[in-house]
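Q: What would this chain look like folded?
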Amino acid sequence: MRTDKKTVFTLNLNGYAPEITELTYPLIEAYAHKIGADFHIIRERKFPEWPITFEKLQIHELGQDNDWNIYIDSDTLIHPDTPDMTQLLPRDTVSHFGKDFSLVRWRTDRYFQRDGRNIGSGNWLAVASNLCIDLWKPPTDLTPKEAIGNIFPTVPERLTGLINPEHLVDDYILSRNIAKYGLKFKLMKEVFEEAGFKDGGGFFYHHYLFATAQKVIELKKVLRTWNLMQIMGYDFPETPVDKAERIKGWMTRKELEWLYEKSKTMKSVVGIGNFLGRSTYVLASGCNGGEGKVYAVDPFVFGGDWSKFCNPNIGYKAGDDFMGDFLRNVGHFPNLVVVKKTSLEAAAMDVIPAEVDMVFIDGDHDYKAVMCDLATWAPRAKKLICGHDFNDPMYPGVKQAVYEYFGAEFVTPGPDGLWAAYSDDERKE
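A: My prediction, written as structure tokens:
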């Protein structure tokens, strides 16, 4: 019985990000082996007049003798349990994992207009049989300048500073080829769902809007989630920030990293507003190497102004006590002192020293409440007082109160939504 000839391709010119490919290539190569395919890394340029991503179109020549060609970007994780896509996709149909509405990103032409489906290729994953090899056919009716001039990155893409029209030339050409040659198209997610896999099976991870360093972090998180560490022989010791990110909450990784690094230089920290312990985790881990006292002040009852804006899937309604969940997340820290009180009530208790090195404010975000917290705790912070949601338009009272209390010239914006005000001695340093 004849076996289909298949090749899994990826693109790697100029030694692309080895810290990424050491994570992704073993899985891509293992998938190729599983489905009986060759694994081919495109390493040489054949179209130097075009942007680098255009080199994916080498598949049109390289894959001529194949029954199936699969392209997977070098920064893509593919789960070992992924089924053979060529066994699920009709031979007369091409597939990507995702698609965009082409009119958002590309200037239309007669091919798009005639086709009318407005398919925008997201070809970090692309699958096609030999019947549809024209998916990767280089254009003979467009110059690089003309093609690039038809590409309009979205606002989120432009804001990253990572994506420009040249970067998307492969998506554009494949989108145009689908329209030009009338290729049947189906999302791979839909193919998997029809095969019985809920939500597309969760077999892939790819995110193109991260810079390399952040992408490595995210890839490692996915490998942990997939429980592949032991199988692949990787050892990625989790940092306190990694562990904090698993706790429900709204602080970004950059914010958690900042808090963790600042707390390392402190011997005592008060946290006003802790919710389920996302920020508490990094403060307790970092404070004086995990040995400094951290006081977690919170009534631990779901409510206040912020509860009106939170995700309804967070799992709480107004009036719910969430202290038990908080303790399950951070109750194991021996240096943590939990104070189940409001900010004002806690300030009057002897359990918290009259002076501490650092205070982090993330409680009630109403203007009056923030002013009250500042008046109560700023005089007790010897080195640093800081807080969250400084730039959040839903909580304008935070910035207003902070600026009024300290004066704008004495406030330092931190990463994302953090703010900080240092003591005179700390500012001099």
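The domain at 243-428 is CATH 3.40.50.150 (Rossmann fold).
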